[in-house]
Structure to design on (230 residues):
């Protein structure tokens, strides 16, 4: 079946603009994760959903970051008033409820803030 | 808190040579262990995992990793590498307890470069 998809694959934003990044998880996957991967670093956890409930947002770096998954499927990560330090690859992953640690990753969205 | 250390940021090796990518972790609770691979311009792919049982785990393309609890290590090895193994490899852990939400904690990655 289809894997995790993310759009857009690349996004260039001017400092101060708002951006929205989309994630389509694997059908039937209850758990959804967002990670941020800065250049030369490993991915870092941002937030976690189980169905439509956001159960953990401890990794969001500031209140400019907001994520939602209103119908328990597609998720959107929104970044308001982007800053240069937001430049990174944003990865989405999904997994089954009983194996949350076995995550399938999308290709990521590379965000460049100029 | 948990952490993962990958000591080598880059590992150059000649084709058909053996390779070891090192990974050490720190955790006060039991963890699951993973290796992910990221080929250029592609997403992360699960290479292999240790959940329980035999401490030696293998992938379908010849990689293996051994969980060593006393040394808190999960090093990745391959006896003979191919050009196509050129990629970045990430070690990761996830907390192992009932109800854990499963988010992964990654190392900084090791870039494996296989030369002809």
């Amino acid at each position: 079946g289809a894997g995790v998809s993310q759009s857009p694959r690349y996004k260039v934003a001017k400092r101060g603009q708002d951006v929205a990044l989309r994630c389509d998880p694997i059908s039937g996957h209850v758990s959804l994760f967002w990670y941020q991967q800065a250049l030369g670093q490993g991915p870092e956890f941002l937030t976690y959903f189980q169905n439509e409930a956001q159960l953990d947002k401890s990794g969001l770096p500031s209140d400019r970051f907001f994520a939602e998954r209103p119908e328990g499927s597609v998720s959107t990560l929104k970044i308001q008033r982007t800053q240069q330090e937001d430049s990174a690859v944003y990865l989405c992953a999904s997994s089954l409820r009983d194996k949350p640690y076995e995550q399938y990753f999308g290709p990521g969205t590379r965000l460049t803030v100029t | 808190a948990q952490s993962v250390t990958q000591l080598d940021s880059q590992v150059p090796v000649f084709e058909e040579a053996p390779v070891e990518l090192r990974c050490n972790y720190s955790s006060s609770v039991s963890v699951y262990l993973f290796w992910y691979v990221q080929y250029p311009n592609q997403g992360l792919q699960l290479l292999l995992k240790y959940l329980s049982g035999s401490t030696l785990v293998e992938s379908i393309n010849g990689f293996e990793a051994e969980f060593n609890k006393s040394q808190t290590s999960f090093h990745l090895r391959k006896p003979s590498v191919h050009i196509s193994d050129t990629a970045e490899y990430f070690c990761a852990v996830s907390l192992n307890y009932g109800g854990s939400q499963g988010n992964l904690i990654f190392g900084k990655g090791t870039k494996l470069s296989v030369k002809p």
In short: The interface with chain B takes residues 4, 31, 33, 35, 40-45, 48, 50, 55-56, 59, 91, 93, 95, 99-108 of chain A (CB under 8 Å). Chain A has a mean pLDDT of 95.
